[in-house]
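[audit] Reproducing an earlier prediction to check determinism. Same input, same settings, fresh worker. If the tokens differ from the archived copy the diff job will pick it up downstream; this log only records the rerun itself.
[audit] input (505 residues):
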Amino acid sequence: RSARDAVISGHRYCTVRGTVAPAINFEVRLPVHGWTQRSLQTGCGGLCGFLGIRVEHDTGCTPVTDGSIVLASTDMGHTSKGFGSGDESWASNPQMRIDFAYRGVHVTAQVVKALMIAYYGQKPRYAYFSGCSDGGREALIEAQRYPDDFDGIAAGAPALNFAVQNSFYHGWMAKSNMDASAKPIINPVDLPVLHQAALDACDANDGLKDLQISDPRTCHFDPGIVQCKGAYEAGKCLTPEQVATARKFYGGAVDAQGHKLVVGSVMPGSELEWAGVFVPRTNGGTIGSINMALGTINNLLFIPNPAPGFTVNTFPFSDAALASEEPARRLYAADNPDLSGFAAHGAKLLLWHGWSDPHISPLNTIDYYNRVGILMGAEERDTFVKLFLFPGMSHCGGGDGPNEFPLLATLMAWVEDGVAPQEMVAHTVPESTPPGMPPDLAKSDLPPAPFIARARPVYAYPLVATYKGSGDINDAASFAAAAPANVDDQPIDWLGHRTSGAGGR
């Protein structure tokens, strides 16, 4: 264990680093002056394996911006170069699997509370957790398994169906985009024409043409509309093979009988965000979803690990394969809708997701929210759980819709002042290299979309923002809350429903 004074972003902290046996590394930053008896632990994305405190969506959150809150995070018990990097050998260790699945975040929370008592001589008043992607899974794990650890939790784009997400979802998307020579069928150059076609078909569904689809569930778009009439012209139309691939993307993984193997897939309007995931960043380049799927399938899901390892072509997309993942599901999943312990603690949960997320379908989060309501009652659920869905936002941020919003300030106001959140105003921000991504990997052959300075209200689900009929469409004041369009909001029927949702644990 080590401790030292450090000035970070202009604020002075006592920074403590240490290890919880066997190998869970943590970092805690304790404000030297002005502590307000709050702590914020942040999640770790991908398969974690690195130590870093990353605070997301802190607009208007004074305790974070003025350095008066304790900050903490963990590497979840192993070291790694990143998701899909090919160095998942740590996962052959059963204890490291457990520490990644749920123990690492919990014991770090215990350490943080002990350090605050030791350093300040008093207990914290409010403990918060915020994470996105796997960090969102970690957030839900805390609410489900350790409901007394935190008073307020923000779970963004949660990988709550972890085993399925990193096998059937990414595996299907990668396989769907590989031709007989293992070359990508759809490339970045093909995405703008597909995206524009989706907008042409569905942009006006909410009564306003504004280059974004407010609720993609109302969009019944067939990519065949942009199939080439003659020879293929890159960036102008799609070949029949590309149309078939796009349909597989939107439809999601199914078995040979057409039964769903995933809760949901990508939504119409998200096409520009596919580059770098199941479409390569550069024309003819590497498909990222291959490594995302195989790193998990061949290292984290089975005991013993498969030998030889699967490829995306040999991995079976079947009900039997889904059943074989059941031990891994129970280890990693954050799909338990029973949040009664969290509610009894008096804690609050903010769920949030971008409609244009290419990594994790927002339908997963909506389905989880609905299943909590079925088990606990919608009225009870809505006293401590709120869901926000952001049109045009990609994975955890970015995208061509408003994607920066006062998440932490909203959560703290709910926990500390009892102000139940009804809306958050989101703003567009210029695109930048995703945090932690080397500039060379961030390069893309996809032309940058023009930046539109826009502010929009996003309302607690199921309400949606509707244009008032006058005023600047880029001004949040021109919109009001309205009931949603007629969409099916029942729990999604997929092969995993036998173990997820109300029947989960």
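[audit] rerun output stored. Observation attached for the diff report: Residues 433-442, 501-505 have pLDDT under 50 and may be disordered.
[audit] end
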